[in-house]
Design a protein that fits this description.
Elements (H helix, E strand, L loop, with lengths): L18 E6 L6 H11 L2 H4 L2 H21 L9 E2 L6 H9 L1 H6 L5 E7 L9 E3 H10 L6 H8 L10 E6 L2 E6 L4 E9 L4 H4 L11 E8 L5 E5 L2 E6 L1 H9 L4 E8 L3 H4 L3 E2 L2 E2 H6 L16 E6 L3 E6 L10
Parallel strand pairs: 9-11
Antiparallel strand pairs: 1-4, 1-14, 2-3, 3-11, 5-6, 6-15, 7-8, 9-10, 12-13
Length: about 325
């Protein structure tokens, strides 16, 4: 006697269906970088196009090589000029903001109008959906005051941050904005009655450790080493304004006097050796060169910051 087993139907469960549109500056990436980016970041239907993407990449390389040869030293010809006098009162208020002062306390800084196209760009990708929202929120022909508020105000609207306590003394914060970060912790000894209300486990509190989670500095800032100016923060706003045809924007310029000690080891994954040493590094204008970018559907994501407190208690000889 034989029995037959009915086949079990495999459920179709989609993985990673949420996505955003991303412009990827693939022409100036290496072949290995292009393959890895498409394989790890894009949706499956985009990954299937990898052979065609590589063929297009190869076809662009003679143009890329010509550009890199013809434009050696272009980054050093960037224009920086002082802000018009009518901006003085507004930027004076920005500079007096405590958050602004703390953010830019470590390096000499100043406000300047900078030429967008010749900014060194560490980032190779653009979230086009986010840029679309930015462009929709900006005036089509921004005035100087508009640009100052968009670019160098210490305050701007940010996405809400979600919080969840996943275990005792372990807190998870998340945001669709990848700029969310841990901003440090400090010891607070002089407790107030409001502080004591948070001591849910009773006892007699003597001190508190306060940790901060939030976003990076709001002003668009650049790092200037010699005659080279590297975009350090505010990439999507710069891209959105360039898309509107704005060719000069106000920024906070931080002066790098000793690159080996003061310049970050890497920005957006690109090492300082490339950003400061390449004869013709990637510039903002490259994102607007016809054919240099491809649009991919990339898995949507949120950035998560976990903050935990480890506790150890021991009795030791006094």
């Amino acid at each position: 006697m034989s029995s037959s087993v009915e086949p079990v139907e495999t459920p179709e469960i989609a993985v990673g269906t949420h996505y955003f549109r991303q412009a990827y500056l693939y022409a100036l990436a290496t072949q290995a970088e292009v393959l890895n980016h498409v394989r790890t970041q894009a949706l499956p239907e985009e990954r299937d196009q990898a052979p065609g993407i590589l063929e297009s990449w190869r076809a662009l390389q003679p143009q890329v090589q010509h550009l890199q040869t013809a434009e050696v030293g272009l980054a050093e010809t960037i224009s920086l000029v002082a802000l018009p006098s009518e901006a003085d009162e507004l930027v004076k208020g920005f500079a007096a903001d405590p958050a602004f002062q703390k953010t830019f306390a470590t390096l000499p800084s100043q406000f300047s109008m900078v030429e967008v196209d010749k900014l060194v760009a560490a980032q190779r990708t653009v979230n086009l959906d986010y840029v679309e929202r930015l462009v929709a929120s900006y005036p089509t022909s921004p005035t100087l005051e508009d640009l100052l508020n968009i670019c160098v105000s210490p305050k701007r609207t940010m996405e809400p941050i979600q919080h969840l306590e996943v275990a005792p003394n372990t807190h998870v914060f998340s945001s669709p904005n990848s700029d969310i970060r841990f901003i440090g912790a400090f010891l607070k000894q002089n407790l107030t009655p409001e502080d004591l209300a948070y001591a849910e486990q009773g006892g007699i509190p003597a001190a508190a450790i306060i940790a901060f989670v939030g976003y990076g500095a709001a002003p668009i800032n650049v790092l200037m080493a010699g005659q080279r100016v590297v975009l350090n923060n505010g990439f999507h706003r710069v891209y959105a304004l360039r898309q509107l045809g704005v060719m000069h924007i106000p920024v906070v310029v931080q002066q790098i006097r000793n690159p080996q000690l003061e310049f970050p080891p890497a920005i957006a994954g690109l090492p300082s050796e490339y950003l400061l040493g390449a004869a013709r590094p990637v510039l903002i204008k490259d994102f607007f060169e016809p054919g240099f970018t491809i649009t991919l559907k990339v898995r949507d994501r949120v950035k998560m910051v976990t903050v935990g407190i480890a506790r150890n208690e021991h009795e030791v000889p006094s």
